[in-house]
């Protein structure tokens, strides 16, 4: 009898504990991420994509305009390292035959050859950089952005060998002394020894802002939206205009499209 | 058994001392890298892996080659290899250690190294490479030590070692296959994107490793009472011959595929290596040296007279080892990054501190090798007397 009573008490105790922890279990079991991260203004998409209308850029933009580059590199504290070997770039111009390797032909209009195309991480749907990273420091977010965790990266640079677009930069040296723009205190600066690249301004989408480059482009040459939503602005452009992607034959499914 | 490493001739101490000095210099250079970061190397945004990773790649091959003495001895009962299997296993231990060190010195954030364990990522080949390399190191230490210990006591090695020996055979193949997969599966690195990458790696491993083993055996014969025996050397040199022929043949296959198809991206790296591309050709002399050494080695090895002669065999083995080092430990990794993803040629030249660090790692490997061989040779001498 004595032992029975003790058992009863034990069982009761366990049950009470179980009940007590129910709210925690519930909170943990929720499918959506924890509530604290979501700002009501947050922009959401199934898969973010960008259309770069180079025509608008060349025809309507001021000559040599680099507003987008400047905006991006300012908000992200991207250092300005002049040495080509150790350069850090998130978004930058590159001429046609370098941007679309293998797609140039002998008789291409001469001025086309020289024209700058905007390069940035393609946030590939099937990204080799994510596939090769041994620590998940490079990973895919649910909204299609290829993200970088600067604090987990061990600096093996496997992702740089994996990316077919040269979109990644490595901090060979301490980047902080090379930040020329005004420091953005709300975005982390990096340390030497880690890889970095364009993040589609995920921190701005979070608070309802468009990417900095998109916002900075006065002529509306950069169009940003959800490529899986048939009514989105990007889908409309993609349906109406002829677009190209870089190295489509590799199967990485880039999410940056170019209007030539 | 370890105490046998602490008593030796003057020459032995001089050798260790010399290696220690090089290790010290390498370490000093590494401190510089620790302070300034990888900026002290010649690597860049375009060629993001250089000398370190190339050495690592080459040495994985030398490590894997232990299987070339282990396999015939344990599976086919080739008795003449009895004496040198231990040398093969200990060579593997030293080489894998160097491999691991080369990976560590190449990391931008070495203090975060354990992240690979904290966040295991099965989709990354690098994760598996770490698993197989450490496993192989462990296996060879365990096997080598136990077999030697048993020999010293004049008994048969414990029965639980046997399965480990068998396991070590496919494991050796796996370390080099996985290392080849580090390269072979990357899009837009055309020079690496070849299905025979793993086969090429194994072929070059099975000639460069045994070639080094032959040279080491001659060295031991000269300076100690250890003699691997003429027959064992003979057999090993045959292995080197066949593996070298296959290796060179495989390189030829790459040429055929690239140039008969005439696809520019497939030709570019080879052009860069052997004739230069867009006026850049820093590796051209090295690659021609590779070609010449490979031919010399083949001529000396295929001809039975020169293969059986100790003097010419030494030259042939040195030629094999050095030519494969040039091909794999220099050309292969760098050429994968040239041209870069924008079809531009950005060259790479290692810097002095970078070379010093690499030399320091090599010295560390040879330090370990010297100690292990000293123990092995002393035990064998004791047993013999
Ligand atoms: S462009 Fe390069 S870095 Fe960006 S997602 Fe694709 S593979 Fe990764
Ligand atoms: S450098 Fe960093 S992000 Fe790139 S693969 Fe290595 S750990 Fe991942």
Short characterization:
With 260 residues, chain A is an alpha+beta fold. Chain A has 10 helices and 10 strands.
Description:
The complex is a heterodimer of chains A (260) and B (385). Helix content of chain A is 31%, strand content 14%. By secondary structure, chain A is α+β, with helices and mostly antiparallel strands. Chain A has a single domain (48-258), classed as 2-Layer Sandwich (Alpha-Beta Plaits), CATH 3.30.70. In chain A, the strands form 4 sheets. A 4-stranded mixed beta sheet of chain A has the order 8-1-10-9. In chain A, strand 4 (138-140) and strand 5 (146-148) form a beta hairpin. The N and C termini of chain A lie far apart (87 Å). Chain B has 385 residues and is mostly helical. Chain B has 2 domains: 1-185 and 351-379, no CATH class; 191-197 and 232-347, no CATH class. Chain B is globular and about 65 Å long. Classes of the chains: A alpha+beta (260), B mainly alpha (385). At the A-B interface, helix 4, helix 6, helix 7 and strand 6 of A face helix 5 and helix 6 of B. One iron/sulfur cluster is lined by residues 132-135, 137-138, 153-159, 195 of chain A. Chain A: Pfam families: Fer4_11.
Task: Give the helices and strands, then pairings.
The complex is a heterodimer of chains A (260) and B (385).
Chain A (H helix, E strand, L loop, with lengths): L1 H28 L18 E6 H7 L6 H9 L15 E5 H4 L10 H5 L1 E5 L7 H5 L5 E3 L5 E3 L9 H5 L6 E2 L24 E2 L5 H4 L6 H5 L5 E5 L6 H8 L2 E2 L11 E4 L1
Chain B lengths: L9 H27 L14 H14 L2 H9 L9 H22 L8 H4 L6 H29 L7 H24 L12 H27 L6 H32 L2 H11 L9 H19 L1 H5 L1 H26 L16 H33 L1
Helix pairs in contact in B: 1-14, 2-4, 2-7, 2-8, 2-13, 3-7, 4-6, 4-14, 6-7, 6-14, 7-8, 8-9, 8-13, 9-10, 9-11, 11-13
The structure holds iron/sulfur cluster (2 copies).
The site of one iron/sulfur cluster (SF4) has 14 residues of chain A, from helix 6.
